[in-house]
Amino acid sequence: MSRVTVLGSGAWGTTLAQVLCDAGHEPLIWGRNQDVVAEINSSHTNSRFLKGIALPSSLEATTDIERACVFGESIVLAIPAQSLRENLRAWKNIFPLTLPVISTLKGIEAGTASRMTEVVMEELGVEKSLIGLITGPNLAAELSLRQPAGAVGASSSRGIQNLIVDLFTTSYFRIYPSEDLVGCELAGAAKSVVALAVGMTIGMGLGENTQAMVITRGLSEVARFGQSYGANPLTFLGLAGMGDIVASCGSSLSRNRQFGEAYGRTGSMAGARAEVASTVEGVASASAIRELAHQVGIEVPIIEVMADAVMGTITPEQAMARLMAVSTLAEL
């Protein structure tokens, strides 16, 4: 049994804590919201983020970040990607620097175009050999019901890969190790933008042909973009790539798809934000991902169009017109 600190009391952090309990470990959730933390401890539920889910009676939560940081033998990050740097700076004097840090964040930092594991290393000085990532087609609402699912445990360190497998493997959750941390991280971030585009087509009333085109061309963009940063091409055919794109684009539970649908239906980003108030990583990361692609000279038409859409400079109709005008040679 291992003691694990989970920083984040939202749907994903709480779900992963449940998985850790089921795997025979002892997690402690940290969260800012006192009501959420009190409910987890007293009622063993988190009705704000996981309605109808009965959490393990052994699961505990705290609002005390100092207690959380000294509790675990490893740290799991499950907070919004765009707030990571700010939080790490606030925690720098108490954050344990010699423990494994496992990111679950799927985003690229706006303004710096940094991957989340890069932010951890930059702000805390944690060694790369202690950094890991868990990613894949994992919708919290389904995994919290203990429906069968798979994920990738990625790290440059074999020891951290094995740790992720040990911590999160249960009868319903299977973890596949990978040494391609960069590829897995870029795939998880970029798929969110593809899901926005697919949602947009659904909101516009377009059909399966259009969705299939956007999904497959989007995967091609993500793969070419990732390979330019040294990623393994096979990463994008697995759970971290194709698997995550299928789940995010195909499920109405996906917040990125939900936001895209609202954009396609209302015709504006303002309208979409009014409908979907929760954190949507594809919206926050689109421009940064476009910047990363351009830094290595890769054309990513779908990501480029959605980055402009996020800025509110084009309508869904203009976005689709631009996608249909892309040269068929541009993506070979």
> Which strands sit side by side, in order, in the main sheet?
3-2-1-4-5-6-7-8
Portion in beta strands = 5-15%
Low-confidence runs (pLDDT<50, min 5 residues)?
none
Intertermini distance: 49 Å
Mean pLDDT: 95
CATH class of the largest domain: Alpha Beta
Biggest sheet statistics: 8 strands, mixed
Determine Rg (CA atoms, Å).
Answer: 19 Å
Q: In terms of structural class, how would the helical and strand content be classed?
A: alpha/beta
Count of strand segments? 8
Helical residue percent? 40-55%
**Number of helices, where a helix is a run of at least 4 consecutive DSSP H or I residues:** 15
Output the CATH topology of the largest domain.
Rossmann fold
Helix and strand element order: EHEHEHEHEHEHEHEHHHHHHHH
CATH superfamily of the largest domain: NAD(P)-binding Rossmann-like Domain
Based on the coordinates given, report the CATH architecture of the largest domain.
3-Layer(aba) Sandwich
Number of domains: 2
What characteristic shape results from the CA principal axes? globular
